[in-house]
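Subject: for your reference before the review

Hello V.,

The reviewers asked for a structural picture of the protein, and I figured it would be easier to keep everything in one thread rather than splitting it across files. Below is the amino acid sequence we used in the manuscript, unchanged from the supplementary table.
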Amino acid sequence: MKTQNIRAAIIGARGYVGAELIRLLDQHPQVELVAAFSRQYEGIQVNAVIEDFSDPTLIYRADDLGTLSGLEADVIFLALPNGLAKNYRHIWEQQLPNTVIIDLSADFRFDADWCYGQPETYSADVQQARLIANPGCYATGAQLGLKPIKHLLLNPPQVFGVSGFSGAGTSPSDKNNPNVLKDNLLAYMLTDHIHEREVSHVLQQEIHFTPHVAPHFRGIHLTISAQLHGDHDDLLQRFQDYYAEHPLIQVQKEIPQVALNARAHHVCMGGFQRQGERYVWVVTLDNLLKGAATQAVQNMNLSLAKNYGLNMNTGVNYAV
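And here is what came back from the structure prediction:
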């Protein structure tokens, strides 16, 4: 078992998720961030952008990705917009054979050569994996909110989703335009959203998902409505039992609130109610943390567990 630090790099370090990764890795007891790639911030000290970052010497860089092997990184996080990581597939799969690659985009979530990395439900697979596709933010909440009752579903469940505008990234669009979002709720991709396909693929169960973006910055709210076989007034207990061993999944009686999950590392589920065969409950999570950066760190911990003595939640302060 190794005792030295894990050498980590982030490609796409300028965005919201990249910034959260920098903070989390800086707090990790066994990680040294050796490179943060950003064309826009090239040459700027990381601690000039990320307050309280501990290394005053680390500077954002924009080297050609062909130089990555020279970093001797143990893990590389890809925090790029959808569609970019797959353009460099040969680098991740062929030129870095000893490096764990964790992609936070949607590029490899349906790819059989990559491990789908939802750490609570695919931990055994992630522990054996080098190429890991991090789940989507909406998809994380929806699949975790449905897994305990997947076998009871009578028909495709309805998932109504609302995200803060940080989920739309930093590139300008109506979905992160304060003038468009003020006093507003913006629906988009009413059918065939990529996270609808992702959850349906992962659960092997069709779901219907409708996403919206709201004026708040961070946090996801999902209202799940489903018809179930049989009588199940014990859903609260069923969910509590199912996730009892997972500290980053909290189940409660009350309806969760987005504001109470902001900047927290856990998923929260609750508000279980019934009307006849119809059951309704709510899932909340922080889209930048458990929906992205926190989950990526959990996957790193699992993949490197054997060599570094880590567990899933090492370096993730899930009490905040």
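For the response letter, the relevant points are probably these. The chain has eleven helices and 13 strands. The CA atoms of residues 200 and 319 lie 31 Å apart.

Happy to draft the paragraph if you're swamped.

O.
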